[in-house]
Amino acid sequence: MLAKFVAYFITSSNAILTDALESIVNVVASTFAFYSIYLTALPKDHNHPYGHGKVEYFSVFLEGILILMAGIFIVFKSVYSVFYPHTISYLLNGSYIIAFTGLVNGALGWYMLRQSKKLNSLTLNAEGKHLLVDALSSFGLVLGLMLLYFSGFLWIDSLISFGLGFFIIYNGYRLLRKAVGGLMDESDDEMIAEVIAHLNKNRKPEWIDVHNLRTQRYGTALHIDCHVTLPYYFDLTKVHQEVSLIDKLISQNTLIATEFFIHADPCLPQCCHYCNMPNCPVRSQPNRKYIAWNINNVTQNLKHFEHDAA
């Protein structure tokens, strides 16, 4: 941030000021992100039975708001400079400084994205993407400054600043969208598809159907709940075995710590036509249909025969 402001005071370039202002956002947002990662790592307690992971969404939300505000300010400043241009100097020196900051931010952003995948951290992922975007905008800025240097057209500086401002606004919106979705427990379709794939791959005849599957993410932990239809004549011990098997299956095959809450439903005569239980002693009609589990029938709060009827 300091290097970019030095470059601005040397050159008086609005485009460089744009990059410097976004770096203020980086510093403020990273400070809060640092604290949110500390909170996320705290163990569950009496007041937070699901852990402290939701604070990561607040961190991303704050970062998105700050980026959005910076982008709006930059756009207005760019429009102002079109009507009231000023002299720009020492463009080469400023470009060297901006290029250096872009290399540093790019390397740090790439490292943070790698760590976010390893640690399943939403905050690190957001910070890493933000720094990579910052690096890309810095490199684009350097190219624009070179064009300005060789052409001498001052309006190019405002044009670059204007374009970068809208680029920053777009990225701020994306972060806000992700944060709001997380705070409202928006369904993670990719994670649901992964869970369904593991269930289909290891499907047992006793698991007649799976429905009402839902996911919630709390920092580095994933909470899943669903209903599983089992033969009604299973005793409690057998039901517990099947439920524990599903829990173990998903926990061992997902890359994120998972808590699985499963509600067992008894089968009904209407389930018989798609039930694969061999030698079932209470079958009322033959098996004549195989229903593949997918995101449409597994996420509905209906047994599969009710889903077909609906």
Please describe what this structure looks like:
This protein has helices spanning 2-11, 14-40, 55-83, 91-119, 122-151, 155-183, 189-201, 236-253, 295-298, 304-309; strands spanning 209-218, 221-230, 257-266. It is mostly helical. The chain folds into two domains: 2-183, Alpha-lytic protease prodomain-like; 189-309, 2-Layer Sandwich (Alpha-Beta Plaits), CATH 3.30.70. Strands 1-2-3 form a three-stranded mixed β-sheet, with helices on one face.
In the CATH hierarchy, what is the architecture of the largest domain at level 2?
Up-down Bundle
Provide the spatial order of strands within the biggest beta sheet. 1-2-3
Q: In the CATH hierarchy, what is the superfamily of the largest domain?
A: Cation efflux protein transmembrane domain
Counting DSSP E segments of at least 2 residues, the number of strands comes to: 3
Write down the domain tally.
2
Unreliable stretches: none
Shape descriptor: elongated
Order of helices and strands: HHHHHHHEEHEHH
Condensed summary:
The chain has 310 residues and is mainly alpha-helical. It has helices at 2-11, 14-40, 55-83, 91-119, 122-151, 155-183, 189-201, 236-253, 295-298, 304-309, and strands at residues 209-218, 221-230, 257-266.
